Amino acid sequence: MGLTDIQSKIAKAESDAGRDAGAVTLIAVSKVQPLERVEEVLQQGHRVFGENRVQEAEGKWPAFKERFDGVQLHLIGPLQSNKVRPALELFDVIHTVDSEKLARRIKMIGDEIGRHPKLFIQVNTGDESQKAGVALGEVDDLVALCRELGLPLVGLMCIPPVDEEPSLHFALLAKIAARNRLAGLSMGMSDDFERAVALGATHVRVGSAIFGQRG
Ligand SMILES: *Cc1c(COP(=O)(O)O)cnc(C)c1O
After folding, report:
1. How far is CA 166 from CA 14, 60, 112, 190, 200, in A?
2. Atom 7, ligand 1: which residue's CA is nearest?
3. Which residues contact residue 112 at a Cβ distance below 8 angstroms, ignoring those fewer than 6 apart?
4. Looking at the predicted structure, is the pLDDT value of residue 143 above 90?
5. For the chain, how big is the Rg over CA atoms in Å?
6. What does pTM read for this prediction?
7. Running DSSP on this structure, what letter comes out for residue 126?
8. 60-86, pLDDT tens digit by residue?
C-alpha cells in the first residue's frame, strides 16, 4: 500500500457513503517510522501527521517543519500533565483529552503561552479498564467543562477494543458526538478506516497501511 492507495480508498469510501469529496482528513501516523519514510510522504505533498508520544515528536518534527511548509501535527497518544506545555507548543490538534484535570491544565498553560490547539475528547467506548479515554457516562460533563473553559473543542475520538467489531464503537461515538453537537469524529485506523468513513469519521488515523509495519 502507500499514501496514494489510502487516499483513493478514502475517496471511494466517501463517495460510497454519499459524503462530500474531501470530507475526511487523513492523518498519517508516523510514530516509530524511519525518518526516510516520513520524508517520502512529505515529498509526496502530504502535510497532516499524527504522533502518539510528545517526546518522540519533539525529536523529529521541528526539523521537518523547517524544511516543509504547512505541516499540521496531531497528538493521538495519551498526554501526561508534565508534557502539556511542550505538547501545546508543538501540536496543532490534540485528540486525547480525557479528564477534567487535563482540560484545566491545557486551558491554563494554553493561556500562558498563547497557543490553543484544537481538541478532541477521547472516549473509552469499550469500557476497558487499562485504556485511556473518558468513561461513557462522563463524556457530556467533560464536553460541557471544555466549553465553559472556552477551549476549542472540535470532536470526539475513540480506539475500539481489538477483539470487537469496530463499527459498533464508531456508531456509538457518532451518536455521542451528535448529542453534544460536535462535528469532529476521529476514528478508524489501518484495518478499519473505510468502515469509519462510512459511519461519519472526519479524521482517520492511518499508520502501517501508509508507511509499512512499524519495526
Ligand atoms: C498507532 C496508532 C494509529 C495507527 O495505527 P495503524 O494500525 O498503524 O494504522 C492510530 N491511532 C492511534 C491512537 C495510534 O496510536
Report:
1. 18, 31, 39, 12, 13
2. 190
3. none
4. yes
5. 16
6. 0.98
7. T
8. 999 999 999 999 999 999 999 999 999
Closest residue by Cα to atom 12, ligand 1, is 76
Name the residue of 205, 210, 211, 213 to mutate for ligand 1: max ligand atoms within 8 A of Cβ.
Answer: 205
Report how far ligand 1's centroid is from the alpha carbon of 211 (Å).
11
From the list 143, 123, 126, the residue with the least C-alpha distance to 134 is 123
- CA of 148 from ligand 1 middle (Å) equals 31
Cell of 199: 459511519
In order, the DSSP letters of 127-168 are --TTS-SB-GGGHHHHHHHHHHTT--EEEEE----TTS-HHH
CB hemisphere CA count around 92 (13 angstroms): 13
Other residues' Cβ atoms within 10 Å of the Cβ of residue 162: 9
| Angle subtended by helix axes 35-43 and 54-67, to nearest 10 | 40
The predicted-structure confidence for 12-54, as pLDDT tens digits, reads as follows: 999 999 999 999 999 999 999 999 999 999 999 999 999 999 9
Cα distance between residue 194 and residue 202, in whole Å: 12
List beta partners, residue 50.
Answer: 29, 74
Phi-psi region of 39 (alpha: psi -120 to 50; beta: other; left: phi over 0): alpha
Task: Report which DSSP code applies to 121.
Answer: E
Closest CA to 180 of 147, 151, 203, 131: 147
